[in-house]
What does this fold into?
Amino acid sequence: MGNFLSALLLQAGYNAALVATGSALLGFAAGASGTFLFLRKRALVSDAVAHATLPGVGLAFILMVALGGDGRSLLGLLAGSAVTAALGLLLVEWIARRTRLSEDAAIGAVLSVFFGVGIVLLTVIQTMSAGRQAGLESFLLGSTAGMLFQDAVVIAVGGTLAVLATYLLRRPMTLVAFDPEYAAASGYDVRRIDLAMMGLVMAVTVIGLKLVGLILIVAMLIVPPVTARFWTERAGRVVWIAGALGGVAGYLGAAISASAPALPTGPIIVLVAAGLFLLSLVLAPARGVAAALLRHRRFQRRVHRRQGLLALARSEPILERYTLRVLRAEGLVRPDGVATEAGRAQAAKVARDECRWDIARQVHQDAGLTGRYDGLTPIEEVFTADEIEAFDSRLGGPRPVGGLA
Amino acid sequence: MTRPTETPITLAATEGRVTPRAAIPADAPLVLRGLTVSYGEKPAVFSVDATFAPEAMTAIIGPNGAGKSTMLKAALGVIPRLSGEVAVFGQPIDVARDRIAYVPQRASVDWDFPTTVIDVVLMGLYRRVGLLGRLTGAHLSRARDCLDRVGMGDFAARQIGQLSGGQQQRVFLARALAQDADLYLLDEPFAGVDAATERAIIDVLKALKAQKKAVVCVHHDLATVASYFDEVFLINVRRIAQGPVAETFTAENLHATYGGRLATTHLDQLDLAQG
Amino acid sequence: MGNEFVQFSLTPMLIGILAAVACALPGNFLILRRQALIGDAISHVVLPGIVVAFLVTGTVAAIPMLLGAAGAALVAVVLIEAIKRLGRIEPGAAMGVTFTTLFAAGVLILEQTDTSSVHLDVEHALMGNLESLIWFRAKGWGSLLDPVALAALPDELGRIAVVCALVVVLMIVFWRWLKISTFDEGFAQAVGLPVTAIGLGLVATAAVAAVAAFDAVGSIIVIAMFICPPAAARLVTNRLEHQVMWSVVFAVLSAVLGYVFAGYGPLWFGSQNAVSAAGMIAAVSGVILGLACLFGPHRSRVGVGREEVL
It folds into this structure.
């Protein structure tokens, strides 16, 4: 606990502090840039991009060794990964656009083939004399253990740049993610903005490779936006909420990871993000599961109650058991099925509203009201009190309901 | 807001005794009772009662978003219903599935699917031949015959992606014909098809009626209702009216269904019944 | 040469072929249903599955591992479906949330557990170890008739053979249901087919194939075989029956060529060490798909596709 607190307060050493800051920044950038992808319904493109980094890492290593270096420069490896990631991205686009294959098939093909090539290159590197200690496997799952100071600086600087880029591009990307046609009509080059969006995702992926690894960086791009979506209906806000959630997950995750051994940074960050997601899935006020369940039950009850009362008003038989249960529970029908005093009163109100609607629909033919005459919308919600009084005056005196049904 | 004064209404519901299940007429091809379907919190179809007539062609009409297709799909169990009952020839739908043929909207499937025209028609026989039953020459010639009836006999080996919209619709109809049902439910069969296809389809449907089959179409073209159909069912979330075209297809009912969305000039050109 | 081939290459090659075919067959339908990435999701969650199985049983015996992996695949599919429906989230994102989280949990548990005594690590899970599945007892082609030698065949071969046969049988039996519910789900439902069960059954079959193949060849090859051979086959023909045949051909071709290139390719470049066969098989399948994208007779769309499904 003490370790965790000191890590949380950036007191657990210079490297750990840099990693925590970098993770928070990276989490923010990943959450925000992932949002655009998510809103564009292309979340898993990030999966292809992430897997496509592996051959780049391998190639960069081989190239650097061939040029006489030791091949382990983080910057060089990241540059290599960016090149193949971009290639993978372009291939996904090309396959989806030029052939009859859908984008998900293109994503799956690119990610598996690039990853396969990457694995082949890793086995090649293992046989090189310089390759034995390369530690390139750490790019699969990320590893902050034994990270050099300058690596931590790369992450911190990269995270800052990614947040900056997200901020600068936020307006066009929001527009394109939400309504590409409108964006095109207002003179934005949708294709270029799309590419910028992907470029940003790619940059985040590359920066995150060392920290969380290529498999789990996908989580940082997808989970926070999905979580954020539960809390707001506005695109602009999803971006910032997702960024904040990603930042919190990154910071907390890095701190937890630094506080004890055998707590790998990447998985911890992802699990923190997943915990936030789970909470939101269940508890979010409007879109959460608990709220939705409650709403659906209430709605179904309302429908059955209304249908039952309509049947009573028309003296039609009620056939459905659930309808009967609802009416009985409210004391509107007796256990033997005859309407009670209260039931008749309620049915009378329903019957009268039906008559009012009939008149309203004659009077307001042009008002586009037809869609609101759906059996559930109370007439008081659609018309003012004096309008309803006007309907009532045209309704005339009491009549038997049977004649109106 | 002040509440309007309570209008006293004498209640016929005084005797609103809940009766046991009333028998459903066994000869009615399709009966819906209290059918309610909703997407989210808004009813798409509310408490609809309908009885479709045997040996007749019925058009289901209503504005966009009025729940026409939804009603049909819910009746077939393709989408779940919130409440209500469905009977097909007096029986629950799962017992009577063999007697129904369904023609979905053309846009509902992926026409890039790797298959041929005759294959699609043969799908209509899958339920009959079962999982492993052999498709014999008789089945094949039956499928060819159905293709001939919609005028697509020469296109049997064609890849479905190469067909025009009208031809795709004809193939769907041929598949329904192969099912040899007693009740045909069609979802917008005339939407976006060419004039020749429209004629071909209506000829096939009229021939079905002549064979004493029931045909129910979701339909959007008011101009052809009077010439194509015997019965109409008007719906806008709720049932507005149902009956023979001659009595029910009136300006009043159309106004009640479409509200202000129907221009009077448009109404003048329709062959309306005098209500 | 012949004897060496039987001893060192015959079984890995056979296992590679059977695994490729077992995955490519259900892959055809996954692709047509735009569920290609279900294969991706399944192969990621295999890791937590086997880790948990190891925690529970304390051994690395094959059967508990397979059961654990299959269980994890099932849990993943249910979770994806639940998140999709309950949270009203598009399928891609729901998959992304599910498989990355489960994978992260798997890695964490693995780190927390002392697995130093057993051969259980992430790289193995990803890359498999096809090259090690050799037939020690074999002395030559004659061993194929020698019961003692046959009894010493790697267990993986028997398992993947059984699973491959199972997949083939299921495919044949449920061919019509699969075809009709994939092409026109509404119609399938209207004629009373259990479309939900068919969909789940397909995913379950894919999961079984993935788990069995994974056991032998690692998860990368699994994703590649789910997607690349069927996708390439789709570009070569316009008939489902032919597509499935072609996908099998491409799968076998990838397995054989990939294995050969991995084992013998480096020799041609003067290197002594073989490279990863699983990776090479995936790479070859990618080359085949690339060729199909460039030259496949039916590579481009004709007619109107369905409007983009959300």
Observations:
- Confidence is low (pLDDT under 50) at residues 1-21 of chain B.
- Residues 233 and 242 of chain B are 4 Å apart (CA to CA).
